Amino acid sequence: MGYSSSDDPDSVLSERYSFLHILMDQPRSKSELEEVVDVSRSTLDRALRDLADSEFVVYKDGVWKPTPLGRCSYRAREAYLGRLESLVEAGPLINELSTTDMIDYPFLEGASVNRADPSMPDAIIQLLLDSVETGKYITIITPVVITGFAEELYERVRSTEDYSLDLIIPPDVFERMRAVFSSLTNKLQDDSNVSLHTATMPFSFGLWIVDSSEAGVIIFTEQGVRGILMNDTPDALDWAEDQYNRVKQEANSDFLALLKSSGSYMFAM
């Protein structure tokens, strides 16, 4: 038995999507379709036959129109194409990650994609600064530091009354940063609103969450910041919270508490 595209509804929907799209607006006779499609009559006949064989359209009362299955299938494919568009837009950023650094689809769908200017890649961190300034409860996980923004980040967080900052960095980064931000250390020693933890990072990107209402991912490369993804959908926030909880479970704050009490506490981002 020979194979045709009509044997596979997915193939029919993919190949004949434009024809179904036209019929979604209103039922049309064949002559009306011939006026609006730029294909031969034989191609139109095959398209309608394929759609009818898959029960996506039906001919009734002199016109072709979508069936309930056709309408649902059309909307499903529209949603799929929208999701695919989100992935393609984020592609240049997420392709910088290793195969083990997976940013799951729930965060990518509908995310705003912000690429860094190669001539000044770190300037894009302004998005992070603006984001934390609007919130009260800030969570930041980062495997690397951007030394030029540490002081300003802290000041932005402090601009909101009753703020809370939870920061997680790798132990080796913490040790290196202790000698760099000595002035900032003094400010943070008495700040009960700041919690610093160390943990081994399971991914190479940075992550922040603001008030459980907005989250961002920072893509780092050897050349600096490649870009930032931001999202505020419930699914994206759930994914971000899961990453935070995964890292927080392995975090160590015991020795940091000792450092704080002895005057050696340190903040880094």
UniProtKB/TrEMBL annotation:
Check the record and name the CDD domains matching this protein.
HTH_ARSR
Q: Which domain of life is it from?
A: Archaea
Entry-linked InterPro entries: ArsR-like_HTH, FilR1_middle_dom, HVO_A0261-like_N, WH_DNA-bd_sf
Annotated Methanogenesis regulatory protein FilR1 middle domain residues: 121-249
A Pfam family hit = FilR1_middle
Q: Which part of the chain is the HVO-A0261-like N-terminal domain?
A: 15-85
What is the protein's given name?
Uncharacterized protein
Source species, please? Halorubrum hochstenium ATCC 700873
